[in-house]
Design brief:
mainly alpha; two-stranded antiparallel sheet; two-stranded antiparallel ribbon
Amino acid sequence: MKNIFKQIKFLPVAALLLLSSCEDLDLVPENQFTDTTYWTSVEKAQTFLSTAYSQMQNSEYFFYNEALSDNAYNGRGDKAGAASIGAGLYDPSLSRIKDEWKNRYAGIKTCNLILENIDRVPNADAAIIGRIKAETRFLRAFQHFQLTTWFGDIPLIKKDLSLEEASSLSRTSHSEVVQFILSELDAIITVLPKNTQQNEADRGRVTVGAAVALKARVLLYEGDWAGVIQVTEQFLANNFGQYSLFSSYEGLFLPQNEYNSEDILSLQYVPQFRMWGDFFDMAPLSSGARLNALAPTQELVDSYVMLNGKKINDAGSGYNENNPYQNRDPRLTGTVVYDQYIWKETDGSSRVIYIKPGSSPGNATDEFVQGSSATPTGYYTRKYYDPQHLTSLNSGLNLMLFRYADILLMHAEAKNELNQMTSSVWDKTIRAIRVRAGFTDGAALGFNSALGQADLREVIRNERRSELGMEGLRIFDIRRWRIAEKVLNGYAHGAKFGVSSVDNGYLRVNLRTFDPNKHYLWPIPRDERLINTNLSQNPNW
């Protein structure tokens, strides 16, 4: 798949497809995609499919969605709308809202054009055409899923539309959109190959495992616990391919381990051809970053348990506020850069990152200074840092959208919600994930049968946060759990670098506001409703 993406920069249709909102539809030269002179070979169809893959998601949303949650803070500008949405200060005119709508419908348009024209390719192998259709239907389902997750009721678009049709669309109910997504996934599961059936050139393309993983996530977000269990149990039984936890949590996110046993589906990037550069505003400045815009919060740091499995504020946890990063969940070190962090490079060298003001014995580049280019929270990000990066920290490292640990976490959550958590379920899910993370204490690894469903719920939810931190999923979890008004109202904090007694010296970095009466759904973009009066608005917008 990486080889296919090398062609995207030369593909003329890629630029032409970045337009599919109602307002832009009249600009689309549809004849260029439907004329018989274009659909003349499988190779041309594959490049069109590559465009659909490229529209699936982008690195900016992948990372900056964390700042929509309590995991991170966007302290420089309003990239991806993270500052506005995180603070609850946005309306239907926000560019992120408009772009999310426009770009995802652009992806849907690409998919519909493929599905309506692929059979025109002459002398094509039926199996190859069938797989292209299946992958395209997956991508179309994924785009609809993202849209309905943010906006609720949305126009369900199953075919390429004329301008007149696009200008008079109405919204389809969320439940109907979800049923369409699930039916599409069920239809393609029998067509797609397993990961064990892929050759090296096809790595990164949608497999049956990816389709089932998306189905599980859809069911999870809908709270269909029985459905989640049914799907994940089959996944755990290797019915959809061979997957397992990668041996190293730190190594899971390094370029030398791409396409590892845990990777179900990733955003594909290629050095020099298709790259992302978000770490230019996320990494320590001493590692070549320009400034720090996206920074982990103290709330994320505090969520990592101690090596004995206890929360930092539990009796007997052993937590020392004066030495806060000692004896903590090893995934903290794999995700967040904190004061006196041991920064390792691939050549085996290491150095200390000094962040606390006045702590550096020499180079103070990374030290927190209010209003400077350094971290606004006292923390930087490590997860997905690419040691093989190019200039300006540009990276060709793939970004995982679905991985096996999430399947285990979904299974554990669904089992507990149906009050079916047992030591056996715990061992093959939470225990397995913690063992891979580096826990060895029996108190952290063993199943505590004295915990009731409510307490286990908190353990499992926190495990999701620790395992998947800075991977763009936290915002969706706190929305589906309906706890956003609890965790997104009040101040987001940084490290204990403050000089006042306010909040015990922890930095106040951003005042968050989340109104449960309106913010659980994004507003339909203002421009879309000005053009199409059939598009209703979400409550209280």
